[in-house]
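Hi V.,

Quick status before I head out on leave. The structure for the redesign project is tokenized and pasted below; the design run finished overnight.
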């Protein structure tokens, strides 16, 4: 499949393959207006992307990785649609070791995971993403922010991998912001 835009009716803004300077074996992006149904659409695009990676033999994508990617997409897109006005951009990338889920929105406010509280209803999304992702990075942009979660392709769960949060533009720090 050539790098760049395509018009195959799936609504993805672009898709490509090859190993470019970003290190992706395969990548795609999907823009949504943040309207009703955008979260389900984002999950569907993630599924199509990973099925394409599996069918194109770019990577072995287990059921666990498929489920975790859908969960991360759902949580990050939900947060973007709920707290940021306007469009949301979902980017998916496949490296030899990870699935990278990137969500951009227009709100520059850096989200913080709250201290775990089983009695709290809602606002557990970032906690969930931190628990299942190999790495989490949050970068402010000139407009809005970009949240990147990396999910290991290996079915061996990663338990003590440090989470990397970027609290200011271009300044990554290790640790969490609870």
């Amino acid at each position: 499949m050539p790098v760049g835009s395509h018009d195959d009716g799936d609504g993805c803004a672009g898709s490509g393959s090859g190993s470019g300077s970003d290190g992706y074996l395969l990548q795609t992006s999907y823009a949504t207006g943040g309207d009703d149904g955008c979260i389900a659409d984002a999950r569907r695009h993630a599924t199509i992307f990973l099925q394409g990676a599996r069918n194109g033999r770019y990577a072995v994508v287990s059921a666990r990785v498929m489920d975790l990617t859908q969960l991360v997409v759902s949580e990050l897109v939900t947060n973007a649609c709920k707290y940021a006005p306007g469009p949301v951009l979902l980017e998916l990338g496949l490296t030899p070791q990870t699935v990278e889920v990137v969500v951009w929105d227009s709100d520059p406010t850096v989200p913080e995971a709250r201290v775990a509280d089983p009695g709290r209803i809602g606002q557990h999304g970032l906690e969930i993403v931190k628990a299942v992702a190999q790495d989490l990075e949050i970068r402010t942009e000139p407009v809005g922010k970009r949240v990147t979660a990396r999910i290991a392709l290996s079915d061996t769960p990663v338990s003590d991998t440090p989470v990397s949060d970027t609290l200011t533009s271009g300044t990554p720090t290790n640790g969490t912001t609870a």
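Above is the designed sequence. The chain has one domain: 35-174.

G. will cover questions while I'm gone.

Best,
W.
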